[in-house]
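hey so u asked for the seq, here:
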Amino acid sequence: MYLGKVYVSYKPSVFDPQGDVIKKSLNQLGFQNIGQVKQGKYFEIKLTDDSFEEAEANLKKFTEELLINPNTETYQYDIVEDEK
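ran it, structure tokens below
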């Protein structure tokens, strides 16, 4: 069994309104050394594939088909063996 960890964020060219609000709030709290804040999503998915290669292919496929909007978002992932 494998554990897939998917990190989703806006593409660099897409304005992140929530990140902007967080940055402004941090500035109001006195944190002036904030250049930019990007907000995103995080998924943990247990995969029961027989091999790492299968798990990776399936993770990429359903992430691109369901978890992200390919027009505005990008993603990174990690896959580790799940010991639980």
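The helical segments are 17-28, 52-67. The chain has two helices and three strands.
lmk if thats what u needed
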